DNA sequence: GTAGGGTTAG
């Protein structure tokens, strides 16, 4: 039985880490006189969750130096960090460790492996783990669907959706991110619309801003810009966020619709006035349209911020 | 048995 104060200490580390305050969690972690498997795992999970994947892997390394053996809970977070960084080599080492130590590959750990390989684009290893899993849930399938979609294999992603549904597993909001972006990659606007409407009607999944983002991408790139704009401004009941605007901008560029791009970029700047990249985006856009006065204006707005080199 | 583990648009 672990000491009582070690348990409460770990609870505190975990509490701060999962709230996103990894800084405080780390302070507590560093202050603690005693650290066990749970302390390390909580801290690594905190870094992974807040997308400080490098820190997560560094800490995993420190954990090994401290001779604390990771278990399947630790490895879920480590694999997530590997997938996030594209650290396939590290991910494979973890996989080998799992096999060597005969760690049971249950749903969560299995899904983490499937996801890590799929994110990297290593579909062979991803499916090897996938096929070896006794129990798969909606996230296991979604990992494959999203992974395939993001690597340009939209048809493959949609195949897996069909297999999943015929296997009796219901798609959720995460699945639909993969499904809709698969439609974007394949360029099937009508099917995208069908899936989008079936989300609510058939699956009871309320579209989130991410799903509208996918639809904007699909419509603008393969439908027409004005329909995409309608989807964005009128149909989307949620306020478009910066990612949606950037999606819109990059999709618009294909059609070189300067007016819409300009409007969108101004909106983006309002949402994220501190992001330097957005000013560069706006300036480049004006430069492309040879609107030199506007280029100067954007630069003026930038001047008090920070030094940025504009592309010629 | 157990304080700690998986999800997403660009």
Short description:
With 312 residues, the chain is mainly alpha-helical.
Strand content: under 5%
From N to C, what is the helix and strand string?
HHHHHHHHHHHHHHHHHH
Question: What's the helical proportion of residues?
Answer: over 70%
Average of per-residue pLDDT values = 90
What is the 3D form?
globular
Task: Point out poorly predicted stretches.
Answer: 306-312
The SS-based structural class is mainly alpha
CATH level-two architecture of the domain at 237-312: Alpha Horseshoe
- Please tally the β strands and state the result: 0
Question: How would you sum up the major sheet?
Answer: none
Helices, by number, come to 18
Per CATH, the superfamily of the domain at 237-312 is: Tetratricopeptide repeat domain
CATH class placement of the domain at 237-312: Mainly Alpha
CATH topology-level name of the domain at 237-312: Serine Threonine Protein Phosphatase 5, Tetratricopeptide repeat
First-to-last CA distance: 66 Å
């Amino acid at each position: 039985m672990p000491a009582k104060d070690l348990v409460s200490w770990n609870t505190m580390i975990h509490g701060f880490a999962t709230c996103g305050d990894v800084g405080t969690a780390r302070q507590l972690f560093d202050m603690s006189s005693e650290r066990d498997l749970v302390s390390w795992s909580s801290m690594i999970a905190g870094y992974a969750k807040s997308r400080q994947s490098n820190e997560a892997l560094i800490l995993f390394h420190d954990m090994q130096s401290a001779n604390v053996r990771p278990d399947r809970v630790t490895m879920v977070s480590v694999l997530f960090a590997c997938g996030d960084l594209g650290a396939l080599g590290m991910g494979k080492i973890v996989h080998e460790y799992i096999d060597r130590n005969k760690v049971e590959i249950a749903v969560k750990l299995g899904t983490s492996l499937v996801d890590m390989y799929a994110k990297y684009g290593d579909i062979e290893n991803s499916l090897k783990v996938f096929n070896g899993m006794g129990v798969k849930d909606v996230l296991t399938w979604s990992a494959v669907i999203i992974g395939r979609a993001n690597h340009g294999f939209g048809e493959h992603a949609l195949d897996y959706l069909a297999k999943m549904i015929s296997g009796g597993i219901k798609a959720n909001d995460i699945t639909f991110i993969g499904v809709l972006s698969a439609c974007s990659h394949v360029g099937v606007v009508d099917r995208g619309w069908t899936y989008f409407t079936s989300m609510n009607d058939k699956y009871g999944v309320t579209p989130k801003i991410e799903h509208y983002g996918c639809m904007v991408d699909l419509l603008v790139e393969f439908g027409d810009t004005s329909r995409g704009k309608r989807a964005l401004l009128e149909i989307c009941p949620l306020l478009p966020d910066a990612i949606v605007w950037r999606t819109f901008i990059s999709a618009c560029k294909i059609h070189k619709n300067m007016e819409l791009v300009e409007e969108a970029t101004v909106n983006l700047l309002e949402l994220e006035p501190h992001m330097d990249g957005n000013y560069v985006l706006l300036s480049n856009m004006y430069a492309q349209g040879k609107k030199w006065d506007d280029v100067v204006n954007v630069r003026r707005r930038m001047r008090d911020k920070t030094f940025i080199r504009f592309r010629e």
